[in-house]
Design brief:
With 168 residues, the protein is of the alpha+beta class. It is built from four helices and twelve strands. The strands form three sheets. Strands 1, 2, 3, 4, 5, 6, 7 and 12 form an eight-stranded antiparallel beta sheet that branches. Strands 8-11 form a two-stranded antiparallel ribbon. A hairpin with a 5-residue loop joins strand 6 and strand 7. The two termini are 26 Å apart. 30% of the residues are buried.
């Protein structure tokens, strides 16, 4: 199935017969910070939230937690990663990270930089910076974390960084 995109920056695709992705439509997390939920399936389900600060261009990706924590940390190619023994039964959920079930509380002043700092301090997995994003798409497809800025904050720095703005 080819990449399906929507006017509100959402997208979905199925590829490799075992992998799929859906990125929900953009929503305003706070004035100037937009977010999208990402659901990736590949021998298990991984849920995350990508938050983009349209004013600064900062991007953070908050990863869902596993219940129960079923992975173990190992060094893989010099990087500390979680390795799961039975991936088919594993599903990560943002609900286990965000309040009320989790410890992280997103507030009306939550910027991408603050989400990164709070999540790191609480021991949650988070990636900071556009080059650190982990959004697995079919070959040749791209995920634009600044699309929501172009849509909701067209005069912002993030909008100028958007692929949509560069194409149009």
């Amino acid at each position: 199935m080819p990449l399906q995109t929507s006017q509100n920056c959402g997208l979905s695709a199925e590829f490799d017969h075992v992998r799929s992705i859906s990125v929900g439509g953009v929503f305003e997390l706070r004035d100037g910070t937009v977010a999208q939920r990402v659901n990736q399936v590949h021998f298990g389900t991984a849920e995350s939230l990508v938050a983009t600060d349209c004013g600064t261009g900062d991007v953070a990706q908050l990863f869902g937690a596993f219940d129960p924590p079923s992975g173990e940390r190992r060094q893989v190619d010099g990087e500390d990663v979680l390795v799961y023994s039975n991936c088919e039964e594993n599903a990560s959920s943002l609900d286990l990270v965000l309040r009320p079930l989790g410890k992280l509380h997103l507030t009306a002043d939550s910027t991408a930089k603050q989400i990164n700092a709070r999540a790191s301090r609480l021991g949650y997995d988070v990636a900071f910076g556009v080059n650190a994003l982990q959004v697995d798409l079919p070959r040749g497809a791209t995920f634009d974390p600044y699309c929501g800025c172009a849509l909701l904050h067209p005069e912002s720095r993030g909008a100028r960084l958007s692929v949509q703005a560069m194409d149009g």
